[in-house]
Every structure is written in structure tokens, then in C-alpha cells.
Amino acid sequence: MVSRIVLASNNRGKLAELQAMLVPLGMELVRQADLGIPEAAEPFRTFVENALAKARHAAAHSKLPALADDAGLCVDAFGGLPGVDTAYYATQFGYEKGDDHNVRALLEQMRDVDHRRAALVSTLVAVRSPEDPEPLIAVGRAVGEIAREPAGEHGFGFDPVMYIPSFGATFAQLPPEVKNANSHRGQAARQMVQLMRERWL
Fold first, then answer.
1. Rounded to an integer, what distance in angstroms lies between the CA atom of residue 5 and that of residue 37?
2. Which residues are annotated as a binding site for substrate?
3. What is the pLDDT of residues 70-118, one digit of tens each?
4. Which residues are annotated as a binding site for Mg(2+)?
5. pLDDT of residue 1
6. Which residues bind substrate (predicted)?
7. What is the pTM of this model?
8. What is the Cα–Cα distance from 1 to 201, expressed in whole angstroms?
9. Catalytic residue numbers?
10. Edge-to-edge strand list for the sheet holding 4-7
């Protein structure tokens, strides 16, 4: 029976979001920083490879099962990019790293682009040990369109420009509980909870 899992991320927002979803399983999520574990290298070009590397790294250092997430924005018109480089997107265009700069850079790059479909993608990977041959893998995708300008007060990242046609609003305009229920990370977390229930408990 797994009771403690190390989260291979130091993002407090991510910890809170994922912790809430694991409560029904009776699992406690611990941030790797709280165990003195350094961040893992993320050299790969796919979300799943980076998430797996982060999970194995955290499991090896903690001797606990580990959960890792790799997520990003995939824009159709850019062949799926920025993808794994989402966090550093703005730096390619001379801006400092940061959510607001990412949004500004994206809107500038898409100024003359009419095909605006994009997906926010979250890949969660969980391992029981560093050598686990059967990692649990859950993928969530929230498909929408890149808005022409930011709207909304909630969320983070690209939420202010991620327009979801079925809601007629950006993720940043939706109440947090609605966004979390429909977001890429929300979808992936629900799948992961189901996988853990079936395979680990």
C-alpha cells in the first residue's frame, strides 16, 4: 500500500492541485524540495520522456514512489511547438522567462496567423521505484484556440489566451474549480488516480 509519494516538482500550485486529487486514495504528496532532492535534467523532446526521467530521479533519491508531470502548449500552426520548451518560450524572442512574457511572445508570433488551434497537454508519470518497468502514464489534453488578446483573472501560464469554444471563455475567465475539472492537468490527474487505484492499491 502506497501512502507517501514524492512529487518531482517544486511548483506549489501543482502540489496543491495534485494533492487534492490524491486525497481519495489516502496518499500524501511530498515535494522533492522538502526532501532536499535537486531538480532532474529534462533533455528530451517529448513530455512523456521528461516526466519519466523526473519521476525516476525523484524515486532514486527518495526511495519512495514518485509522481512527475511535464506539460506545455502545443500550437498546430507551429507543428506542435513550443511543446517541452513552453516554460522558456519567451526567452527565444529576447524576453525574460515568465508567464506574462510567454503570452506576449506568443501573441506577437501569431499576429498574422489565422489557424489558431492549440492544445495544453499534461503528461503525468508515476513509478513505484527508479527501475519500475511499468510506469503509470496519464495524458490530458485541453484543446482550444489562441485568443487575439488576454482575458480573465484566474489561472497561470497561457490560461488568459487559451480560449475554450465549448465554454465561450478563456481558462483564465472560468472559476478555478471549473477550469481544474476541464484542464489538461485535471484530466491527467483523474486518469492517474484511476490507474493507481487499479494497479497499486
1. 13
2. 9-14, 71, 156-159, 179, 184-185
3. 999 999 999 999 999 999 999 999 999 999 999 999 999 999 999 999 9
4. 70
5. 61
6. 9-14, 71, 156-159, 179, 184-185
7. 0.92
8. 6
9. 70
10. 28-31, 4-7, 66-75, 117-127, 136-146, 162-164, 169-170
